[in-house]
Amino acid sequence: MLVRPTSDVSVLPDGIDLRQGALEDERLPLESVETVVYCASMGFGHTPPLLRQLQAAGVKRGLFVSTTAIFTSLPAASRTPRIEAEAAVQDSTLDWTILRPTMIYGTARDRNISRLLRFLARWPLFPVCGNALWQPIYVEDLADAVVAALDNPTTVGRTYNLAGAYPLRFAELVRTAARTLAQRVILVRVPVSAAVLAARVSRVATPEQVRRLAEDKAFDYAEATRDFGFRPRSFAEGVRLEARALGL
Ligand SMILES: NC(=O)c1ccc[n+]([C@@H]2O[C@H](COP(=O)([O-])OP(=O)(O)OC[C@H]3O[C@@H](n4cnc5c(N)ncnc54)[C@H](OP(=O)(O)O)[C@@H]3O)[C@@H](O)[C@H]2O)c1
Q: Which region, left, alpha or beta, applies to residue 95 given φ > 0 means left and ψ of -120 to 50 means alpha?
C-alpha cells in the first residue's frame, strides 16, 4: 500500500506491505506490483502521469475509484480533470475497471453522515436546503464492490455507477438519521438562494457546495448487480451501523 510520511497508518491492519511515496513522485515504488486499486481523488491531475508509470512498470490490472460527481451540471472545477482522468484510464493498456460511488458514509472518519449524526444528537432543529434525491453508499458496500469487481473478469474495460439501495429525499434522509438516534428533529426549510447567499457571506461552504446539496444525486447501479452481484444496504440500515459505531 502506498502511504505518505503524513498518512495515519494506525488505522490500517497489521501485516500490510507499506511503501512510502506520493502521487506527485516521478518514481513510485512499484516493484512486483501486478494490480493497483486507486482510491485517491481523480480530480487533481495525478491519474494520467500515474498511468504512464503503471504501464512502464508492467502493472496488469487497475481498479480506479472515481465518483458520480462527474455527472454534476454545476461548473465544478474538479469535473474536467476527473473526466480527463477517466478517459486516460479507458485509453490505457491496463485491464481497467472504474467504479463511481456516490457519497460514501459509514465511519467516524467520513465527512458527511458522521457530522449529521453528531449534529442531530445535540440539536433538535436541522436546516434543509432544497429537497434533492440522495443515495449515499455505505463504505463496506463499496469495499465489497472493489473486491468483487477485481475478482470478476467481466468488469475489465467497464465503468460502473455505485449507490445505496435506493434514493431518498434529503428531508427523509435527515429524518431517517434522527429516527436511528431516537431523536425528534424539526426541519427548517431554507431556500437555496438564501443558503447560497449565506455561504458567500460566511464562507463556511462555497456557493457551489450549497447548490450541489440541492442537486439530485440518484444513480442506477443495475449493471454492477448484473456483473458482480452488487447488492448495497439501504440508508436506514447503513446509518444504524454508523450510529452504533459512533456510540450514539
Ligand atoms: N468521500 C466521499 O464521499 C466520496 C464520494 C464519491 C467518490 N469518492 C471517491 O472515493 C475515493 C476515496 O474517497 P475519500 O473521501 O476517502 O478520499 P480522500 O480522503 O481524499 O483520500 C483518500 C486517500 O488518498 C490519499 N492521497 C491523497 N492525495 C495523495 C497523494 N498526493 N499521494 C498519495 N496519496 C494521496 C490519502 O492519503 P493520506 O492518508 O496520506 O491522506 C487518502 O488515504 C476517491 O477517489 C474519491 O474521489 C469519495
A: beta
The cell for 146 is 472493489
Whole-number Cα distances in Å, 219 to 14, 84, 179, 216: 36, 21, 25, 9
| Burial tier of 105 (Cβ tally within 10 Å: 0-12, 13-18, 19+) | buried
- Dihedrals φ, ψ of 145, to 5°? -65, -40
**First-residue to last-residue Cα distance in the chain:** 32
Q: How many A from CA of 3 to the centre of ligand 1? A: 12
Residues 33-82: pLDDT tens digits? 999 999 999 999 999 999 999 999 999 999 999 999 999 998 888 899 99
Q: Would you say the CB of residue 12 lies under 6 angstroms from ligand 1?
A: no
Torsion region of 106: left, alpha or beta (phi above 0 gives left; psi -120 to 50 gives alpha): left
Q: Count CB-CB contacts under 10 A for residue 16.
A: 10
How many whole angstroms separate alpha carbon 147 and alpha carbon 226?
A: 15
Nearest-10 Cα torsion for 115, 120, 122, 128: 90
Confidence (pTM) = 0.95
CA distance 69 to 11: 27
**What separation in Å is there between the alpha carbon of 115 and the centre of ligand 1?**
18
